[in-house]
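Fold it.
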Amino acid sequence: MNYYDKAKKKVAKKKKFNKHLQSYLSTMAMLFMMSFVMPPMRRVLGIVAFFWGIGLFAHYVEAHGFPGMEAEDEWEEKEIEKEVRRMQRKDRKWNTPLDDELDIDEHLDLDQPPPVRRKNYRDEDLV
């Protein structure tokens, strides 16, 4: 499945959620107005708002993912990319160029050796 198809499915889920949210808000507004005319409706308003709200939250998580967390598909794609990069680094690390491609003289340059320090004792003083 290509990116366009994946994006199209995500947009369709988000569109369904937005319609669900609109129906929830309009119904709650109507029940809220009815609760002023008929006081027993306040209990119904609370019950409907609570349980429908749970369903609405579940729909939100399905469409947008849990707040603060990535969707499972995005996480899986990122993990695959990380694993591929890790394998490529490992492969580059062990694949060294051939010796004839290297300039050996370049790698064998030595620095001047450090000067020899004179000892501050006599061999006779040692036990």
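Helices lie at 3-37, 41-64, 72-94, 104-107.
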